[in-house]
Amino acid sequence: MTSAAPVRIATPEDFAVLEPLMRAFYVEEKLPFNDAVSEALQTVLADASLGQIFIDERGAYLAMLYGFSLELGGRTAFVDELFVVPAARWQNIARTLMNEAAHVAKLQGLVALLLEIAEPEPHKVAFYTSCGFAPRAHPLMLKLLVA
Which of 64, 87, 132, 142 has its CA 20 to 30 A from that of 117? Predict the structure, then answer.
């Protein structure tokens, strides 16, 4: 890891710490949390070929999941979730997690990181821009394949 902060890549043993953080994130984002979400977390923790989850022991996590893009010329990763507990916000924890994810992605030869901002509030856009992200002209669309 590149920083002295308590950030590390999560392992299956971190499930008991990560699941409550994810539940808090889902409540805050008004997303449904169910058994499929919990099982997906376990799957990623058990299979590093799918991505990594970075955990900060002050109450934060970032989920970076792998993909591939012809347009971008290779392996990519999607920053699927980033959450910091309210009591730990404004301490550069999110920036530390983003820097670690970018560092690991670069070491693994990935060509790009992608993310989605559900509600493009000015402070969120400013934060991600300061981390090197830029808006794309292509909107992200979704088709669910499971009920």
Answer: 87
- Show pLDDT as tens, one digit a residue, over the chain (147 residues): 444 558 999 999 999 999 999 999 999 999 999 999 999 999 999 999 999 999 999 999 999 999 999 999 999 999 999 999 998 998 999 999 999 999 999 999 999 999 998 877 898 899 999 999 998 888 888 888 977
Residue 16: in which H helix or E strand, if any? helix 15-28
Cβ atoms of 3 and 99 closer than 8 Å: yes
Considering the domain 7-130, what is its CATH architecture?
A: 3-Layer(aba) Sandwich (3.40)
* 95 CB-near residues (< 8 Å, 6+ apart): 127, 130, 131
Q: Is the pTM of this model over 0.70?
A: yes
Domain locations in the chain as residue ranges: 7-130
Question: Contact, 17 vs 55, CB < 8 A?
Answer: yes
Nearest-angstrom CA–CA distance, 72 and 67:
11
